[in-house]
Amino acid sequence: MNNIFVYIELEGTEIADVSLELLTKGKQLATQLNKKLEAICIGSNLAGIEKQLYPYGVDVVHVADDKRLSPYTTLPHNRIVCDLFEREKPEIALFGATSMGRDLAPRVCSTTGSGLTADCTSLEIGDHVDPKTKTEYKNLLYQIRPAFGGNIIATIINPETRPQIATVREGVMKKEIFDAAYKGELKKIEVANLLQKEDFVIQVIERQIEKSKVNLKGAPIIVSGGYGVGSKENFQLLYDLARVLGAEVGASRAAVDAGYAEHERQVGQTGITVRPKLYIACGISGAVQHTAGMAESAMVIAINNDENAPINAVADYTIHGDLNEIIPKMIKYYKSNTK
Amino acid sequence: MGLKILVLAKQVPDTRNVGQDAMKSDGTVNRAVLPAIFNPEDLNALEQALQIKDTFPGTTVKIVTMGPPRAAEIIRESMYRGADGGYLLTDRAFAGADTLATSYTISLAVKKLAPFDLILSGRQAIDGDTAQVGPQVADKVGIPQITYAEEIVSIKNKEVTVKRRLEKGYEIVKAQMPLLITVHGSAAECRSRNSKLTMKYKHARTISELQAAAMDYEDILKSRPYLHIKEWTAGDLNPENSLLGLSGSPTKVKNIQNVVFKAKETVSLTAEDKDIDFLMRELISNHIVG
């Protein structure tokens, strides 16, 4: 009872990275609170899936295995999760802030009457005293997230309702094996009597999921472009530089909105959080929405023709000028100096 | 076959292009400098509704929004583009609501407007980016949801086929109405104002707005009832008061912090060859690249 639960997101039988990242975070929280870490796997053909989860320090793996449960649809997964929460009374429940987690978690919260904080960038344990009633709350989950377009960082708490539920985007938490030999317990959920016919009113008739071509999270160097790049054609320069440096190409929200780059390249609060060793920001002004997702880069180079661009405040090097002139020179001098 | 469609929409501060003055020195948001706009993805939802109206004559599209009195602006804006009217849920008792209390309030209005075939809304609003209100309204109304919709592909025999935009691909799903669909920003952009409709609805007002302008609203509403934007307060919805606004919100804001990025020691360079040559040598010798 009162443990930490993580909903495991599955594509077929493959576990999403974000879920493993949440297990790592969940283990830290569980250790701090002296609670157990439990995982919920809902899908089809899941025999043996628990073995992939135990190394993250999972004490209990709940598995609901039924061919009707894959691919994911909202209602049956909602019913299973809510039923489990009703019985197990989790203290904290974590979901990935993905199209799946952001579909399921609000429904679960509405059914259970719990508070939900979306897209947390940090989760901590702390106390709280209500300013009006002076009631003291021990060991609450501080759900920390940017709000208002990233211009403020808010700490959200759920003093009264349980579970305290949060979603976290992929890449925000770090995934780490806790103990490769860790042994947890498998608990099967009997779904035959639980699920109702009306849970299956939504039918998936086609599903096309591509392996992502873009790997921003794992890229040691990112060449990223903003609205200031000016056009989709000009973005080609960034690809040229990226190829020479062995980098991946990223983009700001403005560049994605303008159609210069694909959505999966978006860096920032509503895109992907990255921590490369080098981040080259080309024509990016540096709205907080963007810098929130790249400020932890080890080194930042900002190429911009605006000397007052906010991005310059987080840059180690600023190059003031026209990127159409600067990028070819970077390629040229990289080549001449590595010969 | 005409459908009855409700579009959930929100007026939001434009948080996408905020300047240095967006935050006051005490760390609170300076709303005065942020223009209030129609939440972008709610416009995508409105367009889907209007396309259905184009295909199925007799369809009605009504907006439901919760907000301060001035949020009536987005209902008018929707009417200029083809919506048939709307409901503004406005009451001090609704203030301070998190997504759960918001969805409770909206669900009461939606139930009052039943029966309906479809509820459409944007996937999320840009001031919070939570994407929670849609699914929570669906839950409270007791209907299925389809989130992240990019296109309503077809509607046949009360069965809707929807293409969903996912992170790494797409999905096509179908379901019987009634249901709630949240629409993704990659869906078709909303049409612009129609000049005839703009003329027709130019004077559409809530009663409060008419009173504030000292206009003879009884006369206007009698002769042109389509100009009446309905205003519902808590009393009209017969709510459980403990579930409204701040008291109905399980999440509380413990504190907020202004985002400040400390300036690093920055080396300023120009586009001149010697500067770029210097930079690339630095990067190579520090094993950052190469």
Question: Secondary-structure blueprint of this entry?
Answer:
The complex is a heterodimer of chains A (339) and B (290).
Chain A: E1 4-8, E2 10-11, E3 14-15, H1 17-33, E4 37-43, H2 50-53, E5 60-65, H3 74-88, E6 92-96, H4 101-112, E7 116-120, E8 122-129, E9 136-147, E10 152-157, E11 164-168, E12 185-188, E13 203-209, E14 221-225, H5 235-245, E15 248-251, H6 253-257, E16 278-282, H7 288-291, E17 300-304, E18 317-320, H8 323-338
Parallel strand pairs in A: 1-4, 1-6, 4-5, 5-12, 6-11, 7-11, 14-15, 14-16, 16-17, 17-18
Antiparallel strand pairs in A: 2-3, 8-9, 9-10
Chain B: E1 4-9, E2 11-13, E3 36-38, H1 40-55, E4 60-66, H2 72-81, E5 85-89, H3 99-112, E6 118-122, H4 133-141, E7 145-156, E8 159-166, E9 169-176, E10 179-183, H5 195-201, H6 207-212, H7 217-223, E11 230-232, H8 234-237, E12 252-258, E13 267-270, H9 273-285
Protein traits:
heterodimer, A: 339 residues, alpha/beta, Rossmann fold, 2 domains, B: 290 residues, two-stranded antiparallel ribbon, 26% strand
